[in-house]
Amino acid sequence: MSAPTANRWAAFARDTNETKIQIALNLDGGAFPPETDARLLQGDDHASQSTKSQTISINTGIGFLDHMLHALSKHAGWSLALACKGDLHIDDHHTAEDVCIALGYAFHQAMGSPAGIKRFGSAYAPLDEALSRAVVDISNRPYAVIELGLKREKIGDLSCEMIPHCMESFAQAARITIHVDVIRGFNDHHRAESAFKALAVAIKEAISKVPGKEGEVPSTKGTLTV
């Protein structure tokens, strides 16, 4: 009889003078960890969806960021509950950056050992005229190359300069390598959303378990933790 599979999940709070964040993440969908902050599940959210396989509840105070994280969670197959109270009276920078740092930390904690995963993932995602490509390496070497080609100053209340920075902040905290490029498209909303969807699908592939490779680390070094 095989040993039960460990849950790939994490839940914590991250409080600073600029933002106060509660987060719970399950990389395989389904339930949240028992230590999940009850405030996260009270329905005070802007982006929410509940199905038999996923629960998503996001409220960062920035509507377009909520929309992007909802798309990321949905297409990555995660359950994600996230709430942030940030210093939006200043601007969107601290909130957007800290939310994505917290999400990256949660991802890294939830992943645990990389043994048995595929490690690499790639995906294309269209949204009408826009098309994006994402390539992911669960490498323990944080690096991000993001080329979105956005032209507007803002989409909703999220500065366009913060959209690639959000992906970079996530990659750094998650300790993964990502390359995300928008190949074509003229609508910035479509360009950004297709990029997040491509990243989601690439992550889902990279963290998927490979039958028959249980306990094996996908690296010639024999480790991805140092």
Automatic annotation (TrEMBL):
<dbReference type="GO" id="GO:0004424">
    <property type="term" value="F:imidazoleglycerol-phosphate dehydratase activity"/>
</dbReference>
<keyword id="KW-0028">Amino-acid biosynthesis</keyword>
<dbReference type="InterPro" id="IPR038494">
    <property type="entry name" value="IGPD_sf"/>
</dbReference>
<protein>
    <recommendedName>
        <fullName>Imidazoleglycerol-phosphate dehydratase</fullName>
        <ecNumber>4.2.1.19</ecNumber>
    </recommendedName>
</protein>
<keyword id="KW-0456">Lyase</keyword>
<comment type="pathway">
    <text>Amino-acid biosynthesis; L-histidine biosynthesis; L-histidine from 5-phospho-alpha-D-ribose 1-diphosphate: step 6/9.</text>
</comment>
<dbReference type="InterPro" id="IPR020568">
    <property type="entry name" value="Ribosomal_Su5_D2-typ_SF"/>
</dbReference>
<dbReference type="GO" id="GO:0000105">
    <property type="term" value="P:L-histidine biosynthetic process"/>
</dbReference>
<dbReference type="Pfam" id="PF00475">
    <property type="entry name" value="IGPD"/>
</dbReference>
<keyword id="KW-0368">Histidine biosynthesis</keyword>
<comment type="similarity">
    <text>Belongs to the imidazoleglycerol-phosphate dehydratase family.</text>
</comment>
<dbReference type="InterPro" id="IPR020565">
    <property type="entry name" value="ImidazoleglycerP_deHydtase_CS"/>
</dbReference>
<dbReference type="InterPro" id="IPR000807">
    <property type="entry name" value="ImidazoleglycerolP_deHydtase"/>
</dbReference>
